[in-house]
């Protein structure tokens, strides 16, 4: 299970590993129900994602929606090329904030 680790008082980091696809997304969504807290920033590190499809990108969109609903900040780092390509193709760059640098 991927769980947030505290970076400092207002920031948490989540390291995702494995696949983000139609089979794994429902479980990951359930596991992430309490990740986004009001006024806090969550950074999701995608460097451990080995494969992602459109369901994985839909999961990122759901997390963006959840963070917004909780008035929390959310960003993603180290997205694999496959995921960046889907986000670019779907013109979601303004919705899904991707940072390319390592933490």
Fold and architecture overview:
With 103 residues, the protein is α/β, with parallel strands linked by helices. The chain is built from three helices and five strands, in the order E-E-H-E-H-E-H-E. Strands 1-2-3-4-5 form a five-stranded mixed beta sheet. Strand 3 (41-52), helix 2 and strand 4 (73-77) form a beta-alpha-beta unit. It is globular and about 35 Å long. It starts with a strand and ends with a strand.
Brief summary:
The chain has 103 residues and is an alpha/beta fold. It has helices at residues 25-31, 54-69, 81-89, and strands spanning 5-8, 11-20, 41-52, 73-77, 98-99.
Task: Show the helix and strand layout.
Layout: E1 5-8, E2 11-20, H1 25-31, E3 41-52, H2 54-69, E4 73-77, H3 81-89, E5 98-99
What would the keywords be for this entry?
alpha/beta, 5-stranded mixed beta sheet
């Amino acid at each position: 299970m991927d769980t947030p680790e505290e970076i400092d008082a207002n920031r948490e980091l989540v390291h995702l590993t494995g696949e983000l696809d139609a089979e794994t997304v429902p479980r990951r969504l359930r596991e992430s129900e309490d990740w986004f807290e009001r006024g806090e920033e969550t950074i999701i590190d995608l460097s451990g994602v080995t494969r992602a499809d459109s369901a994985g990108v839909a999961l990122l969109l759901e997390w963006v929606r959840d963070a917004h609903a909780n008035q929390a900040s959310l960003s993603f780092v180290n997205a694999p090329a496959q995921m960046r390509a889907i986000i670019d193709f779907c013109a979601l760059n303004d919705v899904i904030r991707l940072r390319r640098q390592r933490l």
